[in-house]
Amino acid sequence: MIRSMTGFGTAVAEVPGGRMTVEVRSVNHRFSEVAVRLPRDLASLEDRARALVGERVRRGRVEVIVTRDEGARRPRAVRVDTELAAAYARALRELAAAVGVAGEVPLAQVAALPDVLRLEDERTDPEAVWPGIERAIRAATDALVAMREAEGRRLAADLLARVAAVDALAAAIAARSREVVRVYGERLRARLAEMLAEVPVDEARIATELAMFAERSDITEELVRLRSHLVQFRQTVADEDGAVGRKLDFILQEMGRETNTIGAKANDLEITRAIIDMKSELESLREQVQNVE
């Protein structure tokens, strides 16, 4: 069964040092594109996260967002820049000597100067948190795929209903096409009788004209191909899995080509009206297929 390209999934990962939240969302896209946003210190995990999602999603633009929960406090450490502290101390002694101030430079004074002491978050080991993040990405992707499948079932119902409408129009056109030559012959005889008055109508000439008209307006092959495309479209929607959106779009292009040819060859008002309705249904099908993975 087909799947939609739009969906959303989320999951939570318990990892050393806190909790991570994973969100996976997808929208329509011509190809497959996975964008991953991780905390800066976990950027090395980006390729692995992208590969995980790519296993399940074959088409569409997918965004994977991994964030630390606000309540998760990372371990912190005090860093001392001893070289900077020594430079500060030398500068203060030189200043004291220059202005004639005696005494040692207090340690607390040096420690209070900018950047001597820094409070920093300890770096998270990506390998330590990856197992938890991996489980969360898989769970969020499963939820995303489930939503895409549910939306795909709704899309399939709509697509099949519209294909049934096109099939009904094709059947009506086929039935009408069998009457077109007869109706044309009646009109031709009526015009000739009006123009020629008492002069006998040449039946052989009329038969020749009708044969030429029948050949020009014959749409049997186009209808056969159109119905073949309709069968293939139904089978693809109902039976095939994976990324079939582009295949459905190609089938629709072929259906549109046959419809245009029928409209050009069939010299009949009723068939023309049916073709207009058919093109409307095909356009709606094309719009819906843009949502199919």
Name some characteristics of this structure.
alpha+beta; 4-stranded mixed β-sheet; 62% helix; 3 domains; Ribosomal Protein S5, domain 2; single chain; two-stranded antiparallel ribbon; 293 residues
Brief description of this entry?
The chain is α+β, with helices and mostly antiparallel strands and 293 residues long.
- Provide the number of structural domains: 3
Biggest beta-sheet profile = 4 strands, mixed
Topology order in helix (H) and strand (E) letters: EEEHEEHHEHHHHH
Supply the helix-strand structural class. alpha+beta
Number of helices: 8
Strands of the largest sheet, in order across it? 1-2-4-3
Envelope shape: rod-shaped
Mean pLDDT: 85
Stretches with pLDDT under 50, minimum 5 residues: none
Distance between the termini: 11 Å
Strand content is 15-25%
Radius of gyration: 37 Å
- Helicity, as a percent range: 55-70%
| DSSP strand tally | 6
How does this structure look, described?
62% of the residues lie in helices and 15% in strands. The chain has 293 residues and is an alpha+beta fold. The chain folds into three domains: 7-72 and 127-148, Ribosomal Protein S5, domain 2; 76-121, no CATH class; 150-289. The strands form two sheets. Strands 1-2-4-3 form a four-stranded mixed β-sheet, covered by helices on one side. Strands 5-6 form a two-stranded antiparallel sheet. Strand 1 and strand 2 (18-27) form a beta hairpin. Helix 4 packs antiparallel against helix 5 (203-217). The longest helix has 71 residues, at 126-196. The N and C termini lie close together (11 Å). The model has no long low-confidence stretch (mean pLDDT 85).
